[in-house]
Amino acid sequence: MRFKPKPFTRPVPFKCLHCLDCCRGRHVYLTLKDIERIARKGHDPQDFVTFSVEGNQIRFVLTVREWDLGCVFHDLETGKCGIHDVNPIICRIYPFMVSRKPLGIEGEKPFEYKGKKLWLYYDEGCPGIKAEGSETVISPEEIAEFGLKFERELEGTDLEGLAELIERLEGDSHE
Ligand code: SF4
Ligand code: SF4
């Protein structure tokens, strides 16, 4: 599904309806911490990490099934996320998004958080936003915090780090 950004400037009621539309056809970036958390639950990084070359950088993204572009952790039987308790930080941020630059959308304005200027959005296409019966209200502060955490983790995510992580995981499994 395509992200249809709307400015997120004040708290919004949200209730995930588990339609899992957001788990198909998406490019989900992984940080090394994401990879480690998922691997420690018994999943081999070879089965869920795909390399994506972007300019002169290599990023790690969640592997998708070829036939429907669904995430490999999307459970076809239950329709739910198979790693809900350790899913990647990007999945936790969605249906919200954090940007360092404005996207040029009507009504957007910068959100100052911990001395950083951020632009926050939500996906108008997610049926859980302002869904009937939403008991949870998501605040811009919560999402900004996740966004900064993602940025910090992504900074230290590279091939060398992945090689070290795999070595560490293998060492731990032989103990
Ligand atoms: S976050 Fe939105 S799009 Fe994703 S499963 Fe929940 S309701 Fe559906
Ligand atoms: S890890 Fe879970 S929430 Fe994230 S895209 Fe895959 S199935 Fe969806």
UniProtKB/TrEMBL annotation:
Matching entries from InterPro entries are given as: Puta_zinc/iron-chelating_dom
Q: Which domain of life is it from?
A: Archaea
Q: What is this protein called?
A: YkgJ family cysteine cluster protein
Task: State the Pfam families in the record.
Answer: CxxCxxCC
In terms of PANTHER family, this protein maps to: PUTATIVE-RELATED, YKGJ FAMILY CYSTEINE CLUSTER PROTEIN
